[in-house]
Amino acid sequence: MSISEDQTRQVEAMISDNLQIHHRNKVAFQSVRAKPALDLDNEEYLSVWVIYDGDPHSLDPRLLNSFHRVIVEPLRNLGIHARPSISYIHKSEAHELSI
């Protein structure tokens, strides 16, 4: 199944909302950008870039690693079964993204 532009925007909003909750508002997440992509086996996945502000040390690796489990069910509720690949990018480097 292909991920529509509307679903992509819904995913961005859902991930943004869940990030704030999961990280207990300890990190200033500025935006979420998502884009469907294909891996080497032509399987669809969702590239997700989370733009944050502040000290990179404020990102808790334990929370970052557990975030996938938080969003699996909401993704399925949006009709998306592609796996997300999440990258966290500091706002000072966000201009380098080409999405």
Concise overview:
It contains 2 helices and 3 strands.
Structure, described:
There is one protein chain. Helix 2 links the parallel strand 2 and strand 3. The mean pLDDT is 91. The radius of gyration is 13 Å and the shape is globular. It is 35% helix and 29% strand. The chain has a three-stranded mixed sheet, with helices on one face. Helix 1 crosses helix 2. With 99 residues, it is of the alpha+beta class.
Map the helices and strands:
Elements lengths: L4 H18 L5 E11 L5 E10 L7 H17 L5 E8 L9
Parallel strand pairs: 2-3
Antiparallel strand pairs: 1-2
List key phrases describing it:
99 residues; alpha+beta; three-stranded mixed sheet
Strand residues, percent? 25-35%
Largest sheet, in brief, is: 3 strands, mixed
Q: What separation lies between the terminal Cα atoms?
A: 21 Å
Uncertain stretches of 5 or more adjacent residues: none
Over the alpha carbons, how many angstroms does the gyration radius reach? Answer: 13 Å
How are strands sequenced across the largest beta sheet? 1-2-3
Query: Outline, from the CA principal axes?
Result: globular
Order of helices and strands: HEEHE
How many E strands?
Answer: 3
- Average pLDDT, all residues: 91
Task: Please give the count of helices.
Answer: 2
Q: Indicate the percent of residues in helices.
A: 25-40%
